[in-house]
């Protein structure tokens, strides 16, 4: 962002850029790459006195759809029609505080709005001798203003006339309340100076009020007869008023009375803070209005890289499509299982079971009424485990029991009927019980949430497959649909690859192009070891594996076997600054007047400078121990500007003799690491969106790494003034209260 993009008085001053919005690359630098980037950024976004700039490590991704809304239709009133959900997203972004230093990591968990509220409620307005003296002077002025003075006859006439007009006029401007002095004459015809001055000013303003269109019709005829006389009377009256000094004297004295004290300013700040709040959508916190500048800042969160820039080898894309397709199949199988919860009618199955039981009971009854009990008992012993009636076995048993054949005629058919009825009962019971258990299990564990999550995952994967398919088509076919001739990487040199993609669209750009030539040594260890991602002593490693902080304790495990020890890189990216206005609910100017306030709890302090720091300018390049001491307090600084970068391109030159092996190691580390240099990357196979991915291109003499971004790469902090509040006294100071006679 150029300096003209932000004209806020408290905004950082941006250095003048070249006409092409680019900082030319210098000779290959060595040392700490972090400091090299910081120096380049400071050329564009140089803090003024009272501010400091910090680099974010690792870079922090920004999701465009969280902040996107239609700013074109809103026009100049965009800040008043911003969607609530967008304002909440922006507020959550700018409400986070950080442990300040030259390098910052993740937010420290504190919220600016909560800390601000805590600090305000810990302040008590101070009271010194000058305020006591002012109170005494105001008391004398008040007595003078309220002293009754004789009212001249024309003053009495003026008051009476005004009172009559207020009672008879139909215009809304004339009312008893607008001329309260009408009933303030004392019994001896006196009026105090304050009310007299008010009467004169009201009379002077009446002709202007009468000139309003809504009152012209009522007064036109009257003014036509009395204008000349009235003007003469007013001239005489106000000649006397000037001579007596009422109009100017009263206003002069009011200047002594109408003074906003520090106590009132503190109360106004509290009122503004409370009145500006609204509840978040989830009800977990209070949200306050913020204004990001430029208002359409989110539109720059899309990359300028083309599909061709971000399209690696076709075979790799095809393998990724195959892997994602298999994930989709597995997720769809699980979703189908959850959605396949039994939908059959339980009542219908219950009715079938009841009917089968009834049929079985009837068959049992028919068997008992047709045959003797000894015949039935013998028949039941001849039923196999499978339910079949064995007639041969029954005949043998009947002979042994001396049962004549006439007594069991038809027993075989009756037993088959009973057996069939029992089988029907078992089948119906099994179907009913199985369905009942499935329905009970489904009701006990609601799968609705899991189904929604699976649906979202499937949709995301299908979107990724569609994007990857588009890339393959773009790589295989030209605009006419003909097959493209595959490019031979050995014919493309690293120097031929542009360091930055062209900017789409016409007109000026708020983005600044930054190019850095950098040379590093011993980027990797030749043995399996763990090297810290960043530390001031060892500098910044090329790859890092994850989390980090300003103390640089994160590490990146590397088992590479690179044969080179020196690498020359050319790094290019685009950067811009987005500033934030927290409107009237946040008033940090109060903290610059801390000498005029007491504190209740001495442990609640926004910032206390070390004794070695004599002014805010001494904190711009403060050492780590100074910031460590200040970070113990609630809010040593707060962010006012966010430096965003995108279109990161890293061109690495490799030795031709070892290029193949070195290039493969680079590509392997690129896909497995969590970040490269300052910037975060996503290596997750399930999250390969263009703005979070990292893409490599092999050339004949090296390789090109592209990180579309966008990411926050730095912050402009406003340094909080030194806390000079004093302990609240045990008693109220003398002269605090207005005298009793008032």
UniProtKB/TrEMBL annotation:
Top-rank taxon of the source lineage equals Eukaryota
Protein's name according to its UniProt entry: Predicted protein
